[in-house]
Structures are given as C-alpha cells and as structure tokens.
Amino acid sequence: MNTPTTILSNEHINILKVVGALTRECSAIEDGKEIDEEFFTQAIDFIRNYSDKFHHAKEEDILFKQLETPDEEMHCNPMQQMLHEHDIGRNFVKNLEKGVNEGNKDEVLENARGYADLLTDHIAKEDNILYPMADEALNDETQKLMLEQFSKAEQKRFEKGTKEKYVALANEFEKRK
Fold it and tell me: pLDDT of 80-95, one tens digit each?
C-alpha cells in the first residue's frame, strides 16, 4: 500500500535536488561567481510553493494533526521540533530573498547554506525517525483516509500541471553544475 509517509519521502527527493543545487551555487559564489538572481528566484519559488505550501502543508495540516489525536500512540512526539524547523527554514528563505534583492553575497550565502544544512538534517530526521514512528502508530484505515486528504490538499493547493512544473524544475536543478 502506498502510504502518506511514502508520498512525503518521495517529495523529499525533489526537495533535496534543490538543496543540492543551492549548495553548489553557494560554492560557485564562494569561488567568485556573481549572484545568479534567476536561479535564486526559481529556487525560492520552489521552496515556498512545492516545499512549503505543497509538502509542509500535508505534513502540518494532515500528518502532524493526525498524530496528535489520542487514538495514535507514539512513544515520543518529535512534531514540535519538526514544526520549529519548518519555521526556521521559512526565516532562512525570507532572508535569502532579501540578500538576493540587495545583492548581498554574505547574506545569500549564510541563508542558502543555513537552509540547505537545516533541510538536509530535517529530512533525515523525518525519513528515518518520524515517518517510521508514524507508520507504526497509524492503522491502515487512518492511512487510507490520510491518502484521500493528501489528494484533496494537492488539488486545492495546486492547479493541474503545477506539481509537475516543480518536479521538472527540481530535475533541472539536479543537472545544474
């Protein structure tokens, strides 16, 4: 059975492609390259729309809320930390955009690297700790219901073709050297 956590883990793959491109772009800037405003504008758009509105919304509005119900038993609850890290990531992106707009290399580097490092660790925690705990706590019926909620959330947040546009952008960024 396809599970909610499988869907979220698969979305992490696309997010990590963009994180990798951010890291490579930071290295290029450190080697003397100018700030590529188009790249960062596209990366920020991806992060705000695919990572945050599309992916994090399913985590925060569906998975995390379901895991907070009394019916679901987990031996510990890491969700507050995950939510806190989502907020830290949003702050990095806000400051990254400011740095790009001001042409401030130091601010771009600090916030792009901060975001990349945070997300790399954050995704590892979700994929290796939170999601297995969730799979253990959620029964098949609840997971099926959540899959339906995921589908509705995707339709509500993205018009047809938008998800594919962002997946294509992630794939393009992955090839970028």
Answer: 888 899 999 999 999 9
What is this structure's pTM? 0.92
Please enumerate in sequence order all residues whose Cβ is within 8 A of that of 165, keeping only pairs 6 or more positions apart, or say none: none
Quickly tell me which residue has 């696309």 as its tokens.
14
Measured distance CA(67)–CA(156) in Å, rounded: 22
**More confident call, 173 vs 57:** 173
Task: Give me the architecture of the 4-175 domain, per CATH.
Answer: Up-down Bundle (1.20)
> What average pLDDT does range 113-119 have in this prediction?
97
Q: Where are the domains of the chain?
A: 4-175
HSE-up (13 A, CA, CB side) for residue 155:
6
